[in-house]
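re: ur msg from earlier - yeah i can do the beta-D-glucopyranose complex, just paste it... oh wait u already did. ok heres what im feeding in:
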Amino acid sequence: MQWYICVLASMWLILTVHSELSSYSFPEDFAFGVSSSAYQIEGAAFEDGKGISIWDFSLHNNPDLVSDRSNGDVACDSYHKWKEDIQLLKNLGVNVYRFSISWPRIIPSGYKGSTINQKGVDFYSTFIDELLAENILPLVTIYHWDLPQNLQDKGGWLNETIIDDYLYFAETVIQLFGDRVKHWITFNEPFYICEYGYSEGSLAPFLNESGVGVYKCSHNLLIAHGRIYREYEKKYKTTQKGIMGIAINSGWFEPKEDNDSDREAAEQILLFSLGMHLHPVITGNYPAIMIERIDSISKAEGYTQSRLPKFTEKEKEMLRGSFDFIGLNHYSTALATFVDADFYNQPSFSYDSGVSATPNPSWESSIAQPGMQMVPEGLRKLLVWIKDRYQNPPVLITENGWATGEGLNDESRIRCINGYLSAVLKAIHEDGCRVIGYSHWSLLDNFEWLGGYRIRMGLVEVDFNNTERTRTPKKSYEVYKKIIDSRKLDV
Ligand code: BGC
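and the outut:
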């Protein structure tokens, strides 16, 4: 009898949850999009006056860095095939297209005050015009990892003079395209740029200043973000009527075991990873726990000053509230627990955080990228966490997606889209989160950094063995198109 009641109760629960979800729709002003970045799709790496980026330089000097020894020299050849891309976007029905502007294509030598490459300007200018002609809003990332190599030669993001170089580049693109671009993202994923680029050495420029580079780079990058945000506010916002944010990546962390210590570990790793960049942009400083831990660990290590630099009062004021929206890149969830002191090498970001984040074998893992796990509820919890902690700022999901191998029948990507968009709907309708849009990564299969072309993340397959880089929509393209069209989920 009891068993019978249990089954009935759970059937009722499933039906209620299902019917509630199918009655929800995405708000009218909710933006649907797809995302990409210059180095990953454009190709034409040495054409029309473009300068050399840290990715061109690193992968030509050391092809073994990438699993299939590939690089972005040709990529999807979007520099030549952009008209086809726009047709794919138009047919998909997206409201926005997120792409990045290649710094060395606009300012080949990188330096503040140096020559602007007219051919690069023309390329983006025409592209923006054509997007607008199809009613697709450009969502422009100013910096998505392709730093001019010249700037790296003087230290890159570790040298504070880069702030002025970045400002020159950013202001140049705002002056050139801001009459038509109304949505700006200053940086894509500061954590990846700094921790993997300058501390762990697993992304360009592949430097290994463990536990030091990550914070120096983040500090310079955050100041550059704050300065361009204030410049934009002061000089362009009223006339151009645009908005500006930053795209920060974050997973969600569940406690490894159901106990207070692991719950605390999950909170701590979130404050270290997401908090390192989000907290300053919202509050003006790093999370207190980061400051306390890094200051005291640095002291114990014998450093005369903390490895985490300090903001001046003026910088704090500049940074506080330096956003119109928060861009959130989210792919996965992990299990968190505190680790013993000898678990990580010192100095390092991981040691400073004191927490390990590992996969959960019972969650679905991507076959192409095993660390990526499909946990839609993680996105919902992350959105609620941001809402509760930071007075519900507007959040634009600037990336979310799923890694597969080749093939048009991408059922797992469809599960990802339905699952994560269900989580977004619940976050909006049941939790009151201000999610203003969702931009899927990515329109096309593209150069997935160290995963080369083996990892596929597109709604559209690209044949990288064909010089034409033929594009063929996958099953997920049709599913996403239907969702955009109905503004509902068919779940
Ligand atoms: C990056 C993209 C990348 C995507 C999928 C994000 O971290 O912003 O450039 O392709 O993840 O791996």
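cool cool. The pocket of beta-D-glucopyranose is lined by residues 37, 40, 188-189, 192, 249, 329, 399, 441, 448, 457 (CB under 6 Å). ping me if u need the other ligands too
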